[in-house]
Amino acid sequence: MAAFGLVSLITDLVSDGARSLAGPLLGQLGATALVVGLVTGGAEAAAQGLRVMFGPWADRTRRYWSFTVAGYAMTVVSVPLLAVTPGLGAAGLAAASALIIADRVGKAVRSPAKTVLLAAAAADVGRGRGFAAHKALDLVGALLGPVLVAAVLAATGLLQAAFAVLAVPAGVALALLVWLRRRVPGPGAGPGGAAAPSLFSPVFLRFAVGAFFWSAGLVAFGVISFHLSTAVNVPVAVVPLLYAAAMGAAALGALASGYLYDRAGGAVLLVLPVLVALVPVLALSPAAGPALAGVAVWGAATGIQDSTVKALVADIVPAARQGSAYGVFAAFEGAGALAGGALYGALYPFRPALVATVAALQAVALVLLLAAVSGTRRTPRPSDR
C-alpha cells in the first residue's frame, strides 16, 4: 500500500495542482459560471460514471495492473498540456475543457482496478484505516500540487507556467509506476466472479442511490474557485493555497472517519450529507470568512467520500465483484456530479434557491444512507476476532 500511496501522492500533486486552477483558467478563456459548472461537473461525472464500464471490464480480464497504468498515463499526459491552451485563441476553451475531462477519465480507467488491489491489501489492518491511510497520502500530493502552482503563479503571473511545471512530477510518477509494475505481481489470471452472489443487493442499491443524491449536492471545486476569484475578489494566486487547505481538511476527514468506521461501522457516514448541505451556505457566500470556512467543509466531505465510503462498499460486496461494484457505485456518483454541475451552474446567481435545493437533496441522501447502514455490519479485522 505504501508504494501505491507514493504513486498516488505524486499523481495527485499533478492532477490537483491543475484542478485548483481549473476555474480561473476556464474563466480566463471566456467561460461563464454555467460553462465552468458543466465542464467541471462533467469531468467529475466522467471520473465516476465511466467506472461502470472499466470496473466490470477489469473483473472479467483480471488485468488490474493494465487498467491502473493506462489510467495514470492519461492523467500525467493531459494535465501538462493545459499549459498550451491560453495560446490557442478561440480553440483554447474547447481544448482546456477536453483536457480537464481527459484527466478525470484517466481516473475512471484506473480507479476500480486500483481500489480492488487496495481493498485486498487493507483487509488485515481494517479497511477503514487502510483506505484512510492511502487517502491521506493522496491528499499530501493534493496539498503540495496547489502550493507548487501557487508559487509558480506568484513568481511569474502566468497560468501557462503554473501548468507547465507539472510536467516534471508527471514524468516522475509515470516512471515510478512502470518501475513498480515490473516488481509487483498482479492478481492471477482467469475469469473474475462468475459464480459470485448478486451485486445488486438492497443494501448496495440504497447506498448507491444515496450516493447519487449527495454527489448532486457536492459542488465541484471549479465552481468554488470561480466564485472566490470573481465574487469574493480572492487573488488567483491564492486560490490554489485555499485548495491545499481543503485537502488538509480532506485528510483529517478521511483519517477520522476511517478510524471511527473500524470501531463503529457505517453509521459514521451519516455526517456526509450534513457536510454537503453546508457547502453552498458557506462556500458561495459573498463574504470571505464564511467562504473560506466552506472550502474547509467541502474538503472534509470530499475526504470522507473518497475513503470511508469505499471501505463500506468493500464490506457489503463479494470480493470477486468489487471491481464491478466500484464501477456501478461510481456511476451513481458520476450521474450525481453531472446533475450537480448543471444545478450549481444554473442556480449560481440565485443562492437561496441553490441552498434550498441542495438541502432537499441531502435530506433524501440522509434517509437512504440511514436505511443502507442499518442493514450492514462492520467486517472485523483478524485482531478483533
Q: What order do the helices and strands come in, and which of them pair?
A:
Blueprint: H1 2-19, H2 22-28, H3 33-49, H4 51-61, H5 64-78, H6 92-122, H7 127-156, H8 159-164, H9 167-183, H10 202-217, H11 221-230, H12 239-264, H13 271-283, H14 288-305, H15 308-316, H16 322-347, H17 351-373
Helix pairs in contact: 1-7, 1-9, 2-3, 2-11, 3-6, 3-11, 3-16, 4-6, 4-16, 5-6, 5-9, 6-7, 6-16, 7-12, 7-15, 10-16, 10-17, 12-14, 13-14, 13-17
Structure description:
With 385 residues, the protein is mainly alpha-helical. 76% of the residues lie in helices and 0% in strands. The protein has 17 helices and no strands. Helix 12 packs across helix 14. It is globular, with a radius of gyration of 20 Å. The C terminus is likely disordered.
| Strand elements, count | 0
Low-confidence stretches: 188-197, 378-385
On the 0 to 100 scale, the average pLDDT is 84
Radius of gyration: 20 Å
Cα distance spanning the termini: 23 Å
Strand residue content: under 5%
- Morphology: globular
The share of residues in helices is over 70%
Secondary structure class reads: mainly alpha
Main beta-sheet strand count, sense and barrel state: none
Note the run of SSEs as H and E: HHHHHHHHHHHHHHHHH
Count, helices = 17
List its salient traits.
385 residues; globular; single chain; mainly alpha
In short:
The chain is mostly helical and 385 residues long. 76% of the residues lie in helices and 0% in strands.
